[in-house]
Amino acid sequence: MSAEKYSVIGVMSGTSLDGLDLAFCEFAIDDKWKFKLITAKTISYDQQWQKRLREAATLGPKELAILDSDFGKYIGQQINQFRDEENISFNYISSHGHTVQHQPQNGITVQVGSGTEIRNMTGVNVICDFRKGDVALGGQGAPLVPIGDRLLFGEMDYCLNLGGIANISFEKNEERIAFDICACNIVLNMLAEKLGSNFDDDGAFANGGELNKKLLNELNELPFYKKSYPKSLGREDIEREVFPILNNYQIKPEDLLRTFCKHIAIQIGKVIGSEVSNSKMLITGGGTLNLFLLKQIEDECHLKIVIPSKAIIDFKEAIIFGFLGVLKIRNENNCLKSVTGASEDSSGGDVFLI
Predict the structure, then answer these.
(1) pTM for the full predicted model
(2) Helix, strand and coil percent figures for the chain, each rounded to 5
């Protein structure tokens, strides 16, 4: 029996406003799911789009509807250009859109990027708006990536993402568990900016600093670490809880960087535990490029660390959102209650067929 195959463009726009990620993938299933990333691209937002997306949370219903339509057209235009440049064809577009409001406790989650407009612009079937169904079931609507961790990266015991916030996904008692661990690049990049750089290249600044044990101990006592999962962190939490602690220490930015890298590694180590010597942990996200941070994590986590290709590091989320669309087309669950806290697993997303 031949494998069932799907050719998909996964589309991702993150809160960092780095740009629009497009990942052209093929997914196939026989006994288990396999994927191939064929080509991918990040389109940086110009100043106008950065401004419109950054200010979207303040818009009224009419203006938000206009933005939803305009951003859908923009995504469609970028996909058409990508298709022409790479000379590719595909059956589905699976788009995360861009989150402009996320208040699951109030039953609200809004991602702009109209599926109707993307379909009309490209002439391709579209799946989008993955979060609202889970929120309607009482879930957080996030994280959504762990189902991809389970089915596409299942050979890994842990999947760690070192983004603005460090988060992790793993199996426990035959359920997928995922949650935020601690602040990561949000803090490291802010400290690097004090030294005139957007980020700490290779962790060189941190490597030149000294560990401040008093600061380290204070960071490790943050109340968030005592909470049980599911749990998540937002930028506002970090600005309220973490930044004031750092600002109380009149020490060099290099010392702050070294100490915070150690803090991140210790918190990851606490989550992993000590009985994991035969386990493997996949690490992705921008923090993967911070060699000093990786060394600290190696020191605290006694398992095999796996660093994938740069393409997987950069486009893992876009790949998995492409995969979520495939699961939706197959009417299979792509939102896990064990991760989001919803009342049941579900198959999230709206489908716009040609």
Answers:
(1) 0.87
(2) 45, 25, 30
